[in-house]
Write a structure and sequence with these properties.
Number of strands of chain A: 10
Shape of chain A: globular
Oligomer: heterodimer
Largest interface: A-B, 15 and 12 residues
CATH architecture of the largest domain in chain A: 2-Layer Sandwich
Radius of gyration of chain B: 20 Å
CATH superfamily of the largest domain in chain A: ATPase, nucleotide binding domain
Largest sheet of chain A: 5 strands, mixed
CATH class of the domain at 19-162 in chain B: Alpha Beta
Helix content of chain A: 40-55%
Strand content of chain B: 5-15%
Radius of gyration of chain A: 19 Å
Chain lengths: 257, 387
């Protein structure tokens, strides 16, 4: 059976197609102002026996494709567990949300926490801060990691933090140190979420922000734990949705028989 | 079976906001020449007002529309209920405030206390000093004294007088109403519930506005209809829907978005544990005591609001509700900047985990629609853990 999962996030749309439980095709596109169009382009020429939607735009797609939808929290839990069967804690930092999920031994979700309703301390925050410092996203992480010290950034509100960053730079702080300060600010928030759901243990780090090496390294240091970043951290939710598609399809077949 | 059934209250207001029904009632009272006292909170002792033939009216507090006006004066980072209440008053858009002859407030939280100061010059306004350490022995005598003071305020303002026999009669009237409401609430507790949150909410709202004697026919009729629904095998909500208990801050008007999201996610709300829900009806006031005002004070101090410390009654009450309504998950709704409910969630969560093993979720929200997407994700994820 070929199953597909589609994850409509606030910044990117992700598609995973799997056969025999393994990914055979993955695609990504920007969500843009027209997520339906983004999905149409992404799905072009893709065939599947079952599909499940997840992510912020899941209900839009659910109606469009007449398919089931699951929350991204469940999707990330399923995807993470399939990639790393021993994992008990998942951290997903996306474009506008941060989610910390704990799983029990059999992989069922036992607790989850999300950031407050604004996008403070998420991927979008990092993008804007990198921009304010004149770094590309790749340079941003690398330069932060190589900084000797950190300039502390206190604001988590994107708008306030931008002013704070500008004021730090005008005071003569190096942009490397400010970059590290920004990363530390994100990390302290994520660590607080992680502490609420579980005692410190290995974290499966997914979502677009997991592409940023500095965030993962700092989380590991702060909690004294290993941080596992999958090969393609952005696709974990779509992969989880595809796995769920197999599950629901099988359930349906059983009912039909 | 999930066909349409006759509404529990079938009148011209059915399907609309329940405050219109109560407003019509109050306007009729007003035409009869009755005096009306505006109230904000479950701690306002209605029995004392009823004993003097004064009609309590719950004032508007749940609309996002009046918040912008309020924020010209009040800080944005304040409880939406307080901002909305104040906004209604300064924009003169709360008809309940308009027909009230006086207003009664309580010192439940700092935001309300200071907001009351800003509206005191508009109408005769009386603030009651609510003891917040309910287990101290002085709490009862202090609160009894405060209720007597309210009685004096009402006597002076309205030139009416109440004797203890009239207060005793009002107590019995409340108990009659509470008993009827508990009968109705039992239908939500059924394994296959025959009533949803909206009809429950309509009935609790109406019952808070009327006397027991006045509302008794409506409640009796509702019980008959519920029995009929049960006999016909009617079930509210989707087959096998997860049962959700909602606890926390009062929820009404625009905050009902949370209830809608819970239902849209496929669950059924079986218990509304808030002052806007079942809380006022769960217990009776002791009858035929030597001092009816003391009996009232005793009962009101038992209300498990998070402004009380310690508030162990809330955990006991939550356990009682869980035993009775058998929810599959609990959602604690906290209004933005309500520190006491927000902090108390930690204890509630621990209690639910340790003693009931139920999945739970805290939702911090305001009256805007801005967080509907995020709330939906959280609620759906919570319900996914119930499957």
């Amino acid at each position: 059976m070929i199953a597909a999962g589609i994850d409509i996030g606030s910044r990117t749309v992700k598609l995973a197609v799997i056969e025999g439980g393994k990914p055979i095709l993955t695609r990504k596109a920007l969500t843009s102002h027209d997520p339906l169009e983004a999905v149409r382009t992404l799905m072009n020429g893709v065939e599947y026996d079952a599909i499940v939607a997840t992510g912020y735009g899941r209900h839009l797609i659910k109606d469009y494709l007449k398919c089931a939808a699951i929350s991204e929290i469940k999707a990330f839990a399923l995807g993470a567990r399939a990639i790393l069967p021993r994992c008990r804690v998942v951290l997903d930092i996306g474009g506008q949300d941060t989610k910390a999920i704990s799983l029990n031994e059999s992989g069922d979700m036992s607790k989850f926490e999300m950031n407050d309703k604004c996008a403070a301390g998420t991927g979008r925050f990092l993008e804007i801060m990198a921009n304010a410092l004149g770094f590309s996203l790749d340079e941003f992480s690398g330069n932060a990691l190589s900084a000797k010290g950190a300039a502390k950034v206190n604001s988590m509100c994107t708008v306030f933090a931008e002013s704070e960053v500008i004021s730090l730079i005008t005071q003569g702080a190096s942009r490397h140190e400010v970059a590290l300060g920004i990363h530390q600010a994100i990390v302290s928030r994520s660590v607080a979420l992680l502490k609420r759901i579980s005692t410190p243990q290995e974290v499966f780090f997914a979502g677009g922000v997991a592409l940023n090496k500095c965030v993962g390294v700092l989380i590991g240091r702060e909690l004294g734990i290993p941080v596992f970043v999958p090969e393609d951290p952005q696709i974990v939710g779509a992969y989880g949705a595809a796995l769920h598609a197999i599950y629901t399809k099988k359930l349906l077949l059983n009912i039909d028989n | 079976m999930n066909t349409s059934v006759e509404p529990l209250i079938n009148d011209e207001y059915t399907g609309g906001p329940p405050n219109k029904r109560v407003l019509a009632y109050l306007q009729a009272k007003r035409e009869e020449g009755k005096k009306i006292a505006g109230v904000y909170c479950g701690y306002a002792p209605a029995e004392v007002m009823r004993a003097m033939d004064i009609v309590p009216a719950t004032l508007c507090a749940f609309s996002n529309a009046t918040i912008e006006a309020a924020e010209a004066i009040l800080p944005a980072n304040l409880c939406p209920l307080i901002k909305s209440s104040y906004g209604f008053i300064i924009t003169d858009t709360c008809p309940f405030y308009g027909i009230s002859d006086a207003v009664i407030g309580e010192t439940t939280c700092d935001g309300k206390k200071k907001m009351f100061e800003l509206i005191m010059d508009r109408k005769p306004t009386h603030i009651m000093d609510l003891p917040q350490l309910p287990d101290e022995e002085e709490a009862l005598s202090n609160w009894t004294a405060m209720i007597r003071k309210l009685q004096k305020f009402l006597e002076a303002t309205f030139k009416v007088h109440a004797i203890d026999e009239q207060i005793e009669a009002a107590i019995k009237d409340t108990n009659l109403k509470n008993g009827m409401m508990r009968k109705i609430i039992d239908f939500a507790a059924l394994k296959a519930p025959v009533v949803g949150w909206r009809e429950m909410y309509d009935l609790t709202f109406l019952s808070q506005g009327l006397t027991g004697k006045e509302v008794e026919p409506v409640l009796s009729e509702a019980v008959r209809k519920l029995e009929k629904r049960q006999a016909a095998g009617y079930v509210y909500g989707p087959h096998g829907a997860p049962r959700v208990m909602v606890t926390g801050c009062p929820v009404g008007g625009d905050a009902q978005k949370v209830f809608n999201i819970i239902e849209e996610a496929g669950a059924v709300i079986v218990a509304l544990d808030a002052c806007s829900g079942f809380k006022p009806f769960m217990m009776d006031i002791e009858e035929d005591t030597e001092d009816p005002v003391k009996a009232i004070a005793e009962q009101y101090l038992r209300i498990p609001c998070s402004c009380m410390t310690p508030n162990t009654r809330r955990l006991t009450e939550i356990s009682r509700i869980i035993d009775r309504f058998k929810p599959d998950a609990v959602i604690d709704v906290v209004l933005q900047a309500c520190h006491s409910y927000n902090i108390e969630f930690h204890k509630v969560g621990e209690h639910l985990q340790k003693n009931h093993g139920l999945p739970f979720l805290k939702i911090v929200t305001d009256f805007s629609q801005s967080d509907v997407g995020q709330i939906r994700t959280r609620v759906e994820a919570l319900l996914e853990t119930c499957n």
